Predict the 3D structure of the following.
Amino acid sequence: MRTSEEAPRRATAAAAGTPEHDGHEGTRHRVTRSIVDHGPSTAADLAERLELTPAGVRRHLDALVAEGVVEATEQRVYGRRGRGRPAKVFALTDVGRSGFHQEYDELAAEALSFVAEHLGDEAVTKFARERLAAREERYRPSVESAPPGERARALAEALSADGYAASARPAPGGEQLCQHHCPVAHVAERFPQLCEAEAEVFARLLGTHVQRLATIAHGDGVCTTHVPAVQAESAGSTGRRVGSSGPKAVSSGLNTEHNPPRRGPSRSRESTDATPASGRTTS
């Protein structure tokens, strides 16, 4: 008969990925991989995705929390909260992410530090933009061929193919483009130009301005980008693209052919007011 002292050892052995419990791929690695792919998750979410029992998943999560690989926070509840305490949500820490394609972070950070020191911050910004140029052109056909309402989802699929574990979901006022993994998070923490250049690419591909709500580089669990619904539809119907410095203003609705300026003293003021909205002066 096994004693109670043996229980922690059995849980630790299961969490460590022994062949008896895990086969070729450790269960803990499957748990962390699932969090990378899907973002912060509850034990119930993980159990359903991995086809494990909730109790078994919680044992692995306890071990991962103890090792500092994941951290637990209370799940945010939108709207009316039901009875009982909110479920815990488990997200990867920096230690947990370090095992996923980040072995060369320090080398990359040192290289960019050298560039910034000898050539200035503008050179880092230029590098960040040129680094993403090829990826932008690779994504463009699939994004632009999608219907306007599906372009964020198409972009998420393209990002996922490059290891960013991205998804798009409805949100108030539009959609949220979520990246559950960032291979350059540690470097971007020191050089935010990488995140800024990526947001510029998203704006150009989606044909509308976007707003970064959270980034893994700043300590958030997910990189979250808000894509406005109204402006995304407007940009999709007009087929306008935005420039590298950011999205161009949406047409103000002023049409001099159908809405000629009034005569008299108010004419000069009306032309002046139209200039910043349209981005050009009237003839």
Notes: The two ends are 93 Å apart (CA to CA).
